Amino acid sequence: AIVLGIETSCDETGVGIVADGRLLGAALSSSMDEHARFGGVVPEIAARAHLEAMVPCVSTAFERAGIAPSDVDAIAVTSGPGLATALQTGLAAAKAYALAWNKPLYGVHHLAGHVAADTLEHGPLPPRSIALIVSGGHTSLLLLSDLARDPIVHLGDTRDDAAGEAFDKVARILGLPYPGGPAIDRAARDGDPTAFPFPRAMLDSGFDFSFSGLKSAVARHVGQGGPAVPDVAASFQEAVVDVLTRKAVRSCREHGVDTLVVVGGVAANRRLRALAAERCAEAGITLRIPAPSLCTDNGAMIAAVGDLLIAAGAEPSRLDLSADPSAPLTRAALT
Ligand code: ATP
Ligand code: MG
Ligand code: FE
Fold first, then answer.
1. Where is this chain primarily localised (predicted)?
2. Which of 60, 120, 193, 259 is most buried, with most CB under 10 Å away?
């Protein structure tokens, strides 16, 4: 099916058009710079920016895809989780297009979108896989079967900060610019990852994560007098990706799964990509990580879920579909 996807859960207005698992065209507008001086996303600023960017992004996506609205079979939209005012802007736009063009509407869980992003690059997922979602608000290990049909099983989640949140907070402690993830990734390039032995919480117990102790350890360390930023960044980053990759590989072993998918904004991290590749190769696990532009928020990933839902014969959502800012991840579809 040909699906227009709309994503506005946070600070990127993402529009993407997907046809039978293939990305036809996309457009992205970010209000990131407008939030930088506040050190985090301001919901009202994000919502206003979505409103301004929506129509231009939709036009650009259609131009790039080389198709017209009449060619589209359905509209897919992120209806949760995320910032309420930001989600509502995307939902209003998606409903308007669905009504005006007389197309079915599919509400999509944002994190299922992160997973589906990988299928645009690497094709359909195998019958069983494990997904490591590492983003700004979430860190989870998921046991997946059919993403469009089956319930999503949580093997583990973070008990406090998400991995991306830890990157953002530690960047702030180090005086690095917002958003922190890419800044730490860059700073760590010139640092020694073994300079400081930061804690690896819950490394060998279960599949839950905890990153707030690590953040506090970095804060204490920095407070004791100016250690070199690159060394702290590299050592912090190493602690995070060590835990993420060790647990992900162990979860595959314990569940007899041979495919690991790593998605979400933090999956753009170079050290995470390298260490995951190394450890999966050792363990005989097939690793799938999409290109960085598909790891961070985008509209194509939401279209990809809509496409999968249609292929699975799922019912469209009702037009009174409402935003669910804290939607739990149990199914890809939010109706
Ligand atoms: P969620 O998906 O949980 O709702 P979100 O949509 O805000 O949250 P994403 O857009 O998936 O999150 O990812 C943003 C996060 O990814 C931020 O915390 C950012 O710092 C982090 N990030 C982006 N690039 C990198 C990188 N190269 N290294 C580490 N972290 C990164
Ligand atoms: Mg973002
Ligand atoms: Fe996201």
1. cytoplasm
2. 120
